[in-house]
Amino acid sequence: MINRIMIAAVIVAGALLPLQATALDLPKGKVVLTVTGTKLDHPNVGGKAQFDMPMLEALAGRTGEMETPWTEGVVKFSGPLLRSVLEAAGAHGNKLKVIALNDYAADLPMEDATSLDTMLATRMDGKLMSVRDKGPLFLVYPFDKDQGLFNEKYFSRSVWQIKDIEVTE
What we know:
Layout: H1 2-22, E1 31-37, E2 49-52, H2 53-57, E3 61-66, E4 75-80, H3 82-89, E5 95-100, E6 105-109, H4 111-114, E7 119-121, E8 123-124, E9 127-128, E10 138-140, H5 152-155, E11 162-168
Parallel strand pairs: 1-11
Antiparallel strand pairs: 1-2, 3-4, 4-8, 5-6, 5-11, 7-10, 8-9
Pfam family, one: Oxidored_molyb
Organism: Rhizobium soli
InterPro entries: OxRdtase_Mopterin-bd_dom, OxRdtase_Mopterin-bd_sf
């Protein structure tokens, strides 16, 4: 009898773990990014997924040293992978609209997040990026991994001073 109870408890606990692991906490600090869309599995504030900087920096990310058209010489960027942010929000769709503080926006296919190691850079050369320095978030393509991305198509998608990402069909 005790073995059956223990087995049942393990099964119930195992079933609950994925639910706990996917829940998106409420931001405790200043919101720096809001993800919206009709299909968000993990909204945390009124149907939207909002992130403060510690939430973003806790996600799986990458660091890359690269040259860009907007910086001088080789610069080290780090931050969460775009796909990690979208997974945390539980976002489903085919297109992304990335919107800057000044309302500049770029449309990109979801594949840019899922197939490439595109990051939302929060740091440049180890320092948090200020609005003056293209922060707080800068969509950086993996130019260091694939020189074929170093062209106008991806430059036009490299939004800085990001505030919102809209996920659409």
